[in-house]
Amino acid sequence: MYGGPFVNGKMADDGNPGPGITLTATQNGRSIASTVTGADGSYRFTLAPGSYVVTGCADATVVVVAGQVAHQDISCPIP
């Protein structure tokens, strides 16, 4: 696994922490990594520099830059 920069954030579901949600980071349509949110909805990916789409209950585009931390909170749409 690449030991470089990382993406972190929180997943919210209807305004509350979203625990146990599987998130996937894709690049150019290819799955790169997956993680599951913690009890407080937090998540973290360690990824090589580049542009990724993080998908859970909603999508977010995240750009990872060498030597930096990318923070992206994601909210699930309320049905």
Describe the structure.
- The protein has 79 residues and is mainly beta.
- Helix content is 0%, strand content 57%.
- The protein is built from no helices and 9 strands.
- The protein has strands at 6-13, 16-17, 22-27, 30-36, 42-46, 50-55, 59-64, 70-71, 74-76.
- The strands form 2 sheets. Strands 1, 2, 5, 8 and 9 form a 5-stranded mixed β-sheet that branches.
- Strand 3 (22-27) and strand 4 (30-36) form a beta hairpin.
- It is globular, with a radius of gyration of 12 Å.
Please outline the helices and strands:
Elements: E1 6-13, E2 16-17, E3 22-27, E4 30-36, E5 42-46, E6 50-55, E7 59-64, E8 70-71, E9 74-76
Parallel strand pairs: 1-8, 1-9
Antiparallel strand pairs: 1-2, 1-5, 3-4, 3-6, 6-7
